[in-house]
């Protein structure tokens, strides 16, 4: 009976998906011995429940509580997203002049309204991304990371859940503010499945953004300031990530380079899918995005393992 | 049965040294000068299940390094430790289910949310089944009298209320060992007493082993039966609190404010006037020679009293005494 339970558990653990598997593997010491279902409560109610469901509940609870916590900041976010309006107004003017100058109805395949909606979606993602590296850097420097490790949960998955929770709240606010502007200027858009495309791509986009930002943040195990690296990364998102301009507007050589970088998956993919939904293309985007997620998860796991080892040996 | 068993546990860190000046910084990049710093010398101790232990020492004595090794965050450089049957640094996650921690200066409650939300999260993190969780939560809410502000955002709670919630949050998963780090820091006298009561009760009713670090002599006196003092990574005292008090908590300070400037000097064995300014006096009383009661009775009889306060020596003073004594003994040993 017991052996069968174990086998069942193992099979379920195996179907964890690349990100979960990668991040789970990251927690040093966490995979030694039995799974985390060994609790004071185990002898009884726990037996029938799969450990995966319990684990999942753990991290969804983290996500849920972050959402609730950040709803308290909602006016803060609203105020901040007013800045979004300023940026969008500037771009609106810029693109009006550009379209007038070109004298065409489309530039690089985008209509005027599509370009502006593209910017609204792109900015919404960038401005919704939580300042993870500040938080983690603080935890590493002050040693709080140690206290986090005394809990029966993976440090990376904890932060991932919290990150996604916060990003969700901020994204909703940004979309409401940016969307209001879009509706005001262009009226109700017709994107078909664009919304679905955007949301599916945005989930992956924030995951990629989390993985890269977390890697940058974990560098604080070795270097004093990670702010500089984060600054560069953000500028890369602005440019080759496709925040300022859709990648189609770039020269061909640059487009080819961008296609091999992860940055496009954060901004360009979701924004493009929102305004020019394409069932075939989204499949391709999805695969590329998740290959990056798998790869970056692996890298993050390695980096984290090295960092925790340093913490274990040298106290951070 | 022992909850914690430590044998020859030791930890040293390698430290990089930077030479002064820019050239030093550049040299350091290529050829760093490293040295080894011993944070914890081989130490041995055992804590029985249900025991309340004070683990004391000045900053940098090796206290938190030891606690980090006992919770599995730090890997030791040598020695062994057994916490509830686990080797902490090998079984950190599994051990985590049985250990709770309260850090007076760090909060685990979510600042903008009511405590009840954090409680629920804790239940999930420690994988407590829903039914058990609710029972346990309601029990703790009742015992800690949290009912009134269970649904108030943490930012609106007073420090005392918050601390009670912190402790309740750490107990939801019925830990067998709780590490308490300065649990009463910054609290007023009434709240301190209440927190201590709760801590005592949890030890008595659930047999929880408590591992307490504090700079507050009151915490140690009122909560703990046994005390371990470490300094420079070495155990310099491992004794009962009663013994420690007998040996080191021998002096109390009395602050007096008299109605008139005293004419006759205060002469009692074991009482020394440390400071006098007009009608205000500061006395140091050796309680072994003369009890506080006797001194107070004498004062009331001979003077007109306006105000009086009695102070325990601070833990710092006690520990300084202990260090001084330990230092002397070591000195004797090395010279002998």
UniProtKB/TrEMBL annotation, chain A:
The keyword Membrane applies. Keywords: Membrane, Transmembrane, Transmembrane helix. Residues 1-20 are annotated as: Disordered. Coiled coil: none annotated. The chain crosses the membrane at residues 77-95, 115-134, 167-189, 195-219, 231-247, 279-304. Residues 1-13 have a biased composition (Basic and acidic residues). This is ABC-2 family transporter protein. It comes from Tumebacillus lacus.
UniProtKB/TrEMBL annotation, chain B:
Residues 4-257 form the ABC transporter domain. One of its GO terms (molecular function) is ATP binding. It comes from Tumebacillus lacus. Keywords: ATP-binding, Nucleotide-binding, Transport. Gene3D superfamilies: P-loop containing nucleotide triphosphate hydrolases (3.40.50.300). It comes from the Bacteria. Pfam families: ABC_tran, DrrA1-3_C. This is ATP-binding cassette domain-containing protein. The keyword Mitochondrion does not apply.
């Amino acid at each position: 009976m017991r052996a069968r339970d174990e086998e069942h558990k193992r099979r379920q653990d195996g179907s964890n998906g690349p990100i979960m598997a990668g991040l789970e593997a990251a927690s040093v010491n966490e995979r030694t011995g039995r799974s985390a279902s060994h609790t004071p409560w185990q002898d009884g109610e726990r037996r029938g429940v799969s450990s995966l469901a319990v684990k999942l509940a753990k991290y969804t609870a983290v996500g849920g509580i972050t959402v609730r916590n950040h709803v308290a900041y909602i006016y803060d976010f609203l105020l901040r997203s007013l800045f979004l309006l300023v940026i969008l107004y500037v771009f609106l003017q810029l693109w009006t002049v550009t379209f007038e100058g070109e004298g065409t109805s489309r530039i690089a395949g985008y209509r005027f309204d599509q370009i502006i909606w593209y910017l609204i979606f792109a900015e919404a993602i960038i401005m919704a991304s939580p300042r993870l590296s500040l938080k983690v850097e603080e935890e590493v420097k002050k040693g709080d990371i140690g206290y986090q490790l005394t809990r029966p949960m993976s440090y990376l998955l904890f932060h991932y859940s919290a990150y996604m929770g916060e990003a969700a709240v901020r994204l909703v606010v940004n979309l409401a503010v940016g969307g209001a502007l879009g509706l005001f200027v262009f009226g109700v858009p017709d994107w078909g499945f664009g919304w679905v495309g955007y949301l599916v791509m945005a989930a992956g986009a924030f995951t990629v953004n989390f993985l890269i930002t977390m890697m940058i943040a974990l560098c604080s195990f070795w270097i004093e300031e990670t702010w500089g690296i984060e600054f560069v990364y953000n500028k890369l998102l602005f440019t080759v990530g496709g925040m300022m301009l859709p990648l189609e507007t770039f020269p061909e050589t640059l487009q080819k380079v961008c296609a091999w970088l992860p940055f496009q998956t954060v901004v360009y993919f979701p924004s493009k899918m929102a305004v020019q939904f394409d069932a075939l293309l989204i499949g391709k985007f999805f695969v590329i995005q998740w290959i990056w997620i798998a790869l970056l998860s692996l890298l993050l796991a390695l980096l984290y393992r090295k960092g925790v080892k340093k913490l274990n040996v040298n106290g951070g | 049965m022992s909850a914690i068993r430590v044998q020859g546990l030791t930890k040293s860190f390698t430290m990089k040294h930077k030479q002064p000046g820019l050239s030093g910084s550049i040299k350091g990049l290529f050829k760093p000068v490293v040295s080894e710093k011993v944070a914890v010398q081989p130490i041995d101790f055992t804590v029985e299940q249900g025991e309340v232990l004070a683990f004391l020492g000045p900053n940098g004595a090796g206290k938190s390094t030891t606690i980090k090794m006992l919770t599995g965050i730090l890997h030791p450089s040598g020695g062994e430790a057994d916490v509830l049957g686990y080797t902490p640094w090998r079984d950190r996650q599994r051990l985590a289910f049985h250990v709770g921690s309260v850090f007076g200066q760090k909060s685990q409650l979510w600042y903008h949310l009511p405590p009840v939300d954090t409680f629920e999260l804790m239940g999930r993190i420690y994988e407590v089944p829903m039914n058990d969780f609710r029972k346990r939560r309601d029990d703790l809410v009742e015992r800690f009298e949290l009912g009134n502000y269970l649904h108030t955002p943490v930012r609106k709670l007073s420090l005392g209320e918050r601390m009670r919630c912190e402790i309740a949050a750490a107990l939801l998963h019925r830990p067998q060992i709780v590490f308490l780090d300065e649990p009463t820091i910054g609290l007023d006298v009434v709240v301190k007493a209440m927190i201590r009561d709760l801590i005592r009760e949890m030890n008595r009713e659930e047999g929880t082993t408590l591992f307490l670090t504090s700079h507050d002599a009151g915490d140690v006196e009122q909560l703990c039966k046994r005390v371990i003092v470490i300094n420079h990574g070495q155990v310099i005292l491992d004794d009962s609190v009663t013994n420690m008090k007998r040996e080191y908590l021998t002096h109390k300070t009395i602050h007096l404010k008299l109605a008139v400037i005293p004419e006759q000097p205060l002469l009692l064995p074991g009482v020394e006037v440390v400071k006098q300014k007009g009608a205000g006096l500061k006395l140091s009383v050796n309680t072994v020679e003369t009890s506080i009661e006797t001194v107070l009775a004498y004062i009331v009889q001979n003077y007109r009293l306006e105000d009086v306060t009695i102070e325990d020596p601070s833990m710092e003073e006690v520990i300084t005494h202990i260090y001084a004594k330990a230092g002397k003994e070591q000195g004797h040993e090395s010279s002998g």
